[in-house]
């Protein structure tokens, strides 16, 4: 199940991409993608972030947040600076695993590019 499909920011085709200019490559500079879920998902069901970035234009960090009673960061993954498809496993803290989320968001922080550009061909949260 693809919980967070790329449809909100991307068209699902690996022939096209979504680009953002953060302006600064620092990890503290970020862009947020948010998806409201059709039905709540238990956090323990979230398994991976799937992404394909433009080599040289990858985010440094992807924080995964969930809306339970409030927004909470459940984990972070660190994609390689590569244009290869990556499946990054999520490590959900035991204290949060049984909670349900009605929305999720991915915060892309920093860039491997000196000008803060990020290029994404595919981005999804898999359960």
Automatic annotation (TrEMBL):
Highest taxon of the source?
Answer: Eukaryota
Taxonomic lineage of the native organism? Eukaryota, Fungi, Dikarya, Basidiomycota, Ustilaginomycotina
Q: What is this protein called?
A: Galactose-binding domain-like protein
The protein's matches in InterPro entries, at most eight in alphabetical order, are given as: Galactose-bd-like_sf
